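Example (one chain per record):
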Amino acid sequence: MRKEILRKLGVLFIPPTLFVLMKLLWFSYRKKYHFIDAPIEEQCMAVTWHAELFVSPQVYRKLRKKQATSAIISQHYDGDLIAKTLSFFDITPLRGSSKRGAKSVLMNAIKVMKEGDSVMVTPDGPRGPRYSMSDGAIALALRFNLPLMVVNYKPNSYWQLNSWDRFVIPKPFSSLDIYHQIVKIDDMEKEEAKIYLQEHMKRYALA
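Predicted structure:
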């Protein structure tokens, strides 16, 4: 009972606090954008590694201020915190994972994509392994014939958590090199597309 109460309080108070912290640090960073490919305005799949979630949603909203966007978020406590935090960036959570609620979240993703939403996915979430590639983003991109927007960043100074994804938090006033790519997988087979996307996503990720 006590654990349940603490979790409910955490979902209530941690996301708004985290959002404010993310925004304050974002404004302190010295940002340099590297556009490997020009930004696009049309519907897409937005992909980023789980470790980069502290910054990548803010990059996404910087480049795509008005695009209706949903995000596939796993059904566990950490997912609750991520989902609530992303909602402050006007990104609607779709809850599920490869083990829990996969069918329902896939149906919801298909529904919002038919309505024109872009969808954000972390291919190695929710439990890794780090920089692994699940089927979700690829399957949806192939079904709807959509490009994949890839965001990576490299800070010159950062904290790195001792978690499975080695989550990265750039320190205040650090410099960020932000990398933007558009990956197209038209006419590729699923396994070929997974390898192709993984290679592009790892190209500018922290080792």
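Caption: The helical segments are 2-28, 56-63, 77-87, 102-114, 136-144, 190-203.
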